[in-house]
């Protein structure tokens, strides 16, 4: 979900997969998706936060889809994942379901933010975990090329073929071999807003970037700070840039920049940063101004928008579907009533569809490790976390009723309906030294840009210097 990894050793992205090089009407697909999503999300948000009288669907999902798993009593495996807090607890529930089904003993170990560094040290020290959850495509490819990952077995590949689109399968592959199961996805093109703040200011959901900025100024004039930004976490800023760049420059240029086939000093990057500067350059549009945004972490950026449903500290926050779990657990706001959501507004002709995700990979070639991956590739496993909220699965056979409310159900539907017409988080495709390191690379350059949005040229220069070094290494 979050771009929180750092590279160890050589890292490079996969050079040629159809999901990144595909040019077949992707823009049209994205625009159609977002148009449908906008309508469906608006309809969903206008109702209650759950369907009246309806079964949430988790139990029925499990009854319909019971994946075949071996008995593993006495087997012990270790799983490494970045998730902590509520996310960690929800993942543990998935693991508990696996343990109940197989009898295996499973220990979940937190990796901390620097996943690649943590795993690299464990692997080189001869004590890797059996299974790891990787939140970055670049790291999956780096590890595969080092020979650190074990290819999926036939049982897991059967589940992948049955439950996942070609695009999600390709994201977990390297040089024709399948290594990863994308268990958890993220829809990263969403604006979450405080319904009362929008109502009081007399603004509605923005369809275009121009309208978004106009609304923000109107909200500021009403006495509420318009946009809460978690600039203390660099990955949030990469997501802002990626949505603007994809919508403005288009999918082909996005693919080229993701692979560093064009430089960060390219005019298209200048245009995107200048556009982003239209927001970052007006401190009255940012909660706490530029300085406050830089000192705000992601969870706090969410609570600022929903700390008081009637009189919030900020009117809106941009980020993925996972904002929902912070709203539900850290505020009194009700999703669908107080907290509503709409697609990221179109900057160019097309609205963006940016995704992220966490892939399960095997670091040991054990029966239990492969069984867990098979389970994670099934609708049965996805249903466990879906019921808890704050989760979106790319598993196309997960019953939508498993999600706890209409808003999350529509977000998940939009992701599945996109098929292969989406673009994966750009920073997650990059070498982790550039796209996923605290205080360095893209994170640092964009934080400096948030501090001084007028210095577009300086930001481009810093981005290109960091990218050149990381891709070369």
UniProtKB/TrEMBL annotation:
Q: Name one Pfam family in it.
A: SBP_bac_1
The source's domain of life comes to Bacteria
Q: Which UniProt keywords apply?
A: Transport
Q: What InterPro entries would the database entry show?
A: Bact_solute-bd_prot1 (IPR050490), SBP (IPR006059)
Record Gene3D superfamilies = Periplasmic binding protein-like II (3.40.190.10)
The UniProt record lists the keyword Cytoplasm: no
Q: Where is this region: Disordered?
A: 45-69
According to its UniProt record, which protein family does this protein belong to? Belongs to the bacterial solute-binding protein 1 family.
Instruction: Tell me the protein's name.
Output: ABC transporter substrate-binding protein
Report the source organism.
Answer: Streptomyces ovatisporus
Q: Tell me the classification of the organism that encodes this protein.
A: Bacteria, Bacillati, Actinomycetota, Actinomycetes, Kitasatosporales
């Amino acid at each position: 979900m979050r771009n929180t990894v750092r590279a160890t050793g050589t890292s490079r992205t996969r050079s040629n997969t159809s999901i990144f090089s595909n040019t077949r009407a992707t823009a049209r697909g994205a625009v159609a998706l977002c148009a449908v999503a906008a309508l469906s999300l608006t309809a969903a948000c206008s109702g209650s936060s759950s369907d009246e009288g309806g079964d949430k669907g988790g139990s029925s999902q499990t009854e319909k889809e019971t994946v075949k798993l071996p008995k593993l009593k006495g087997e012990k495996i270790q799983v490494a994942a970045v998730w902590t807090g509520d996310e960690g607890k929800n993942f543990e529930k998935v693991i508990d379901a696996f343990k109940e089904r197989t009898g295996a003993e499973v220990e979940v170990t937190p990796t901390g933010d620097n996943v690649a560094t943590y795993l690299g040290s464990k692997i080189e020290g001869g004590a890797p975990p059996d299974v790891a959850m990787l939140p970055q495509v670049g790291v999956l490819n780096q590890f595969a090329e080092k020979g650190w990952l074990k290819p999926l077995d036939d049982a897991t590949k059967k589940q992948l073929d049955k439950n996942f689109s070609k695009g999600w399968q390709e994201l977990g592959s390297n040089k024709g071999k399948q290594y990863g199961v994308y268990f958890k996805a993220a829809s990263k093109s969403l604006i979450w807003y405080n319904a009362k703040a929008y109502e009081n200011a007399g603004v509605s959901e923005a369809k275009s970037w121009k309208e978004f900025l106009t609304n923000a100024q109107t909200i500021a004039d009403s006495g509420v700070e318009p946009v809460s930004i978690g600039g203390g976490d660099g990955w949030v800023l990469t997501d802002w840039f990626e949505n603007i760049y994809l919508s403005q420059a288009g999918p082909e240029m996005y693919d080229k920049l993701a692979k560093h086939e064009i430089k960060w000093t390219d005019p298209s990057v200048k245009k995107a940063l200048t556009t982003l500067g239209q927001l970052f350059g007006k401190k009255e549009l940012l909660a706490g101004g530029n300085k406050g945004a830089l000192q705000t972490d992601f969870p706090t950026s969410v609570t600022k928008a929903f700390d008081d449903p009637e009189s919030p500290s900020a009117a809106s926050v941009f980020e993925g579907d996972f904002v929902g779990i912070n709203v539900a657990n850290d505020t009194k706001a009700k999703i669908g009533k107080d907290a509503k959501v709409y697609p990221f507004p179109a900057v160019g002709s097309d609205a963006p569809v940016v995704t992220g995700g966490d892939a399960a990979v095997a670091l040991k070639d054990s029966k239990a490790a492969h069984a867990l991956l098979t389970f994670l590739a099934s609708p049965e496993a996805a249903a466990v976390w879906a019921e808890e909220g704050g989760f979106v699965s790319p598993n196309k056979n997960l019953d939508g009723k498993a999600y706890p409310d209409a808003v999350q159900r529509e977000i998940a539907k939009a992701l599945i309906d996109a098929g292969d017409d989406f673009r994966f988080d750009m920073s997650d495709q990059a070498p982790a030294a550039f796209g996923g390191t605290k205080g360095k690379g893209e994170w640092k350059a964009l934080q400096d840009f948030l501090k001084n949005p007028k210095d577009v040229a300086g930001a481009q220069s810093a981005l290109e210097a960091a990218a050149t070094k990381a891709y070369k290494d």
